[in-house]
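User: Hi! I have a protein structure encoded as tokens and I'd like to know what sequence might fold into it. I'm fairly new to this, so please keep things simple.
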């Protein structure tokens, strides 16, 4: 029988099922990631899905996030001294990159409790301060100056909801950067291309070993 949600040892599960490894396209950062993607995916489905937890998106460095992280590390002026939100953060990769690049305060949010724990572990491993928020922040405005979102346009409903919310933040003066490897529901007509990277990814989860991933700036509708 699965343990009740409140008593799950998320930190222990993450440490047992992952290894701390450098991110392929942002090797300044190391993350607790799954070495065998399909094995961990199956394990979470078998052992954790029964209590309603999502798949382990937190255990991988996704292409859009890697592109965003690389861009922030290479262009620290984008984040230096700013209040930054890494939306749907997963592993915390982009948040950690923002902190390393000199952001004044970095918040990383996700709706998966395992992701929130992974963000804390990964921030600790990289010696940076990141506030992990276990909450859906769509519709909120806490005064962030820069909002980063990696790989958020793979489902129509989610993409429309997220982009609608982010557009409102842009309208009041925030900057929004989206990292994306060509997901189906990316609103290209609203975006300005900033940089493109060839990002190594997990072949068992993607359709290639290298994904061309672009960092975009969201404009006003």
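Assistant: Happy to help. Inverse folding works backwards from shape to sequence: for each of the 221 positions I chose a residue that suits the local structure. Here it is:
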């Amino acid at each position: 029988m699965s343990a009740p949600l409140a008593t799950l040892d998320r930190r222990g599960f993450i440490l047992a099922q992952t290894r701390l490894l450098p991110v392929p396209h942002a090797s300044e950062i190391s993350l607790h990631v799954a070495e065998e993607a399909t094995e961990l995916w199956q394990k979470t489905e078998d052992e954790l899905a029964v209590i309603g937890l999502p798949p382990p998106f937190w255990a991988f460095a996704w292409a859009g996030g890697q592109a965003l992280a690389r861009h922030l590390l290479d262009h620290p002026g984008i984040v230096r001294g700013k209040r930054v939100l890494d939306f749907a953060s997963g592993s915390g990769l982009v948040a950690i990159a923002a902190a390393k690049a000199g952001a004044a305060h970095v918040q990383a949010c996700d709706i998966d409790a395992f992701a929130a724990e992974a963000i804390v572990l990964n921030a600790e491993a990289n010696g940076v301060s990141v506030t992990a928020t276990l909450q859906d922040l769509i519709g909120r405005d806490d005064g962030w100056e820069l909002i980063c979102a990696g790989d958020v346009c793979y489902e129509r409903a989610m993409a429309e909801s997220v982009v609608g919310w982010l557009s409102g933040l842009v309208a009041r003066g925030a900057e929004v950067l989206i990292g994306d490897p060509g997901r189906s529901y990316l609103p290209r007509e609203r975006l300005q291309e900033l940089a493109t990277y060839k990002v190594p990814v997990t072949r068992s989860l993607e359709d290639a070993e290298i994904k061309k991933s672009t960092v975009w700036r969201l404009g006003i509708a």
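A useful reference point when you look it over: Residues 190 and 219 are 6 Å apart (CA to CA). Feel free to ask if any position seems puzzling.
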